[in-house]
Fold these 2 entries.
Entry 1:
Amino acid sequence: MLKFKLMPQAKAFAIMLFAFAVVSSALPPSVIGGGRNGLRVTAYNYSDLNGVEWPDLRPWRTRSGASLCDRTTVDTVDHDWGGGAVLGCQADDVALNYVGFIRVRRTGTYTFSTRSDDGFVLTIGRETVIDDWEEQSVLTYNATGEIRLRAGMRYRFEIWYYENGGVAVSELYVSRNGGAVELLPSEWLFQR
Ligand SMILES: [Ca+2]
Ligand SMILES: [Ca+2]
């Protein structure tokens, strides 16, 4: 019977190569190819709106009366705070700014839909995909918007959300080319 004899160094190298192949195949492509998944979130309490109603207050332009109450990261946009505290902030009069990047694996037209209480604005690249900055109940309203995204491209991804009073919900769903609607996958989102 023919036997291959490897030098000890060659044997060690072969074992290292095999171990690397096993570890590499176990990692999802997003971990190999980029930064940490998810989005960064900055949250503000609003103590005094100076007589301005929330729908007229675009926090990315007007931050008067706002104070920083939390900075954190989230895997995706899937929050139902009920009537309680929004992240580490008040239960009412809170604005959140989610920031990061999105990269999809297949080119197509992506339809985003939000279930939010209250206001929600989604911007991808320079395009405002959802503009839904108003008082609303999750039971009665969903906003949608679509955009064409190319596979492998990184687009800046930003959401402004606000909670006026009562129940607070912030959820974002997506469907590609009119297919099944799913919660926005964390693997498509990058913090940097
Ligand atoms: Ca509310
Ligand atoms: Ca509330």
Note: The CA atoms of residues 2 and 79 lie 63 Å apart.
Entry 2:
Amino acid sequence: MELYELKPYIIESCDYLGIDIKEISSDILLIQIPDNLKDELNGINNTKVSFVKTSDPNITYLTFESFFTQKIAQLVADRNTGIGTGTKLLKLDAPTNYIKAQLPSCNIQLLDISQENTDYLFIWFKTTVRGNLVEEYLKGFKYNLKEDKVETYNEDINFLLEDIKDELLLDVNEAHLDTVLREMLSLAKEDAEIFIEKKKIENKEILDKEIKRINDYYDMLYYENQLAESSKGVTPKEELELLQREREGLISQQIHKYEYKSHDTTIEPIAILMLRQTVETATVHAVNNYGQISLHINAENTISLECALTNDTNGPFTITSDDMIVQVDNAFNCSECNRLLDKSKESSCKVCDQKICNDCEEISSLSRASLCHDHTQRCQSCIEVVASDEFHLCVNCNQFYCLKCNESSLCSLCKSLQPIQGVTPQVNQIINLLPNDFSAKKYESSEKGNRVNLLGKGTLFKSFLIVFDKNTNTIIEKQKYGLFNKKK
Ligand SMILES: [Zn+2]
Ligand SMILES: [Zn+2]
Ligand SMILES: [Zn+2]
Ligand SMILES: [Zn+2]
């Protein structure tokens, strides 16, 4: 029997048949037989096989004569029904279901569904190369007849053969097919050359070791013979020549053993599939209460959504008000404008901690903190935006001003009262608004932002203090003084 390398043969054949293999160790494989092949293999589902003898009763020792090997070979042969032609429709169900699952809060619609046909030629070659061992492998090649180019064959055979409808394709150009087949064969030849080159490198190491072993052995004999008396009736010189010839003979045997003879390589097509593949394409329109997106999908390509913020592909996702796909966990609702936005646009109010977007937030001129609408106030003295908790009461005029305008308990208006030189129209307006019992001999005033403070004085003591608001044109604070400036 020829010495085949059994392990690669089993691995490639199982791959061709769609049988899953897990390598447990370099000699032991776990073979997982799909249900459709179970009956063919005596009802086995999972089985461990080994290429060396083991004492484990659960592991089948595999040789070329084993039932399993023979059956696999037969199944491969059965699959090779020669030339097959058929059509296959790749539908949009998988990508559509994926999008629906990944965008659970969205309404998904498929628009502009269309179909595109491409003819492919698949061909599987069995390549046999002969060196010290005879090695076989199966390899598939794929040709796109529409674009006239070789494509990488990386199909899952079960998936490829699934749902093919046998159909004769009569409109195929035979001469063209012939050229393509020849091109594929030359590709398979190139591939075999690469395989042989790889094997040669592997073998070179083994061969070098063998030669070294032979040389070491004969070097030792040579040395011993130089010392010893001849005992076989040949002269020492003749004996050394004999050893040298033996050595050369053994080395050339080894070289011959590890040699690959390219003319011994055979490449046979074992299966050809001419496939007209129809691929559905469409535009997916996904919409929720906030935004919408459109995506082009193609039944042949797997689609994967990705978070616009993190590029993470783990869903679920949602669509933001600015029409971006983000992970649900990376989206927030602005409590002001109610838009759904990604977290890079999120702030929270310093006072109430509500989530607000960058467009809605106000920034305190004092602390630079983010503020929601409810907790934003304008200081009527400096007219700046500050947080509602950044105000301080002036004990004199009883008004709240920001911490900049009222650092201590006396506001900057109260601190800067100055005697008035003449009665301006504004002072006149304020005086006209005074109640009848508010009178004074002289006045002091200060003005900042929207506020005017007016202090009325008698001969000796203060008479009254009022705060006038320019926005509303009203007096918002009235205080009367008694003797010795005592507030009434
Ligand atoms: Zn907002
Ligand atoms: Zn707030
Ligand atoms: Zn202020
Ligand atoms: Zn004040």
Note: Residues 416-485 form one domain.
